[in-house]
Amino acid sequence: MKVYRVRERHHENLLDDLLLARGVTDKDAFLNPDFVRDSHDPFLLPDMGVAVDRIISAQKNNEQVCVWSDYDCDGIPGGVLLTDFLRSMVLAVRHYIPHRHEEGYGLNKEGLDELAEQKISLIITVDLGTTEFENIEYAKQKGIDVIVTDHHLVTGDVPKAVAVINPKRPDNKYPFDGLCGAGMAWKLVQALQIKGNFVKEGQEKWLIDLAALGTLSDMV
User: Fold this and answer.
1) 0.85 cut: is pTM over it?
2) According to the 3-state scheme, what is the secondary structure of the chain?
3) What are phi and psi of 185, to 5 degrees?
4) 109 φ/ψ angles, rounded to the nearest 5 degrees
5) pLDDT digit string (tens) for 108-160?
6) What are phi and psi of 33, to 5 degrees?
């Protein structure tokens, strides 16, 4: 028994050392996460309130909405989780994923033209949009509002979209800026649920697995 206790204590110390090496200082919170306790207020992110109000307005006015996500394993799960939740709000939603080789990263005029023809009036980006100055302006000319959710570096001004939700913005008040694109989509879902209670309480947490997939894939 004495040898066993020594080994047990050694294993506990090893676990503590491994967690500390990874920057984890609260072992209990890390090993026993709580959905409510550990979720920061999404409205601390810049423009979140404006984005939520615009989406709820789209719902009330029966608008056609498009979720435009990146084509990688961060953007795709982020786009899926946001699309699923918006459809649970009884919104008509198309999920647009540009072709990696034919369209490339981000928004493009050909895709925007197609969406305008389909009477899309609101685009919500996932994992892109922070540097899309020209294409967001083009979308506005086509009568399409754009909400950006992104996590990429902000080097100066942001586009003149309805909202640019990005924790890298200098005016960000959210306590963690390392979220991936899918994580940002999840925070928008969380904010919508807080404001409108669109699904049964707690059901939105079942979308977190897609945010986790994006987090691991994007190595944030």
Assistant:
1) yes
2) CHHHHHHHHHHHHHHHHHHHHCCCCCHHHHHCCCCCCCCCCHHHCCCHHHHHHHHHHHHHCCCEEEEEECCCCCHHHHHHHHHHHHHHCCCEEEEECCCCCCCCCCCCHHHHHHHHHCCEEEEEEECCCCCCHHHHHHHHHCCCEEEEECCCCCCCCCCCCCEEECCCCCCCCCCCCCCCHHHHHHHHHHHHHHHHCCCCCCHHHHHHHHHHHHHHHHCC
3) -60, -40
4) -65, -35
5) 999 999 999 999 999 999 999 999 999 999 999 999 999 999 999 999 999 99
6) -65, 150
Q: Which residues contact 128 (CB under 8 A, 6 or more apart)?
A: 68, 69, 70, 75, 105, 106, 107, 148, 150, 152, 181
What are 176's two structure tokens? 């963690």
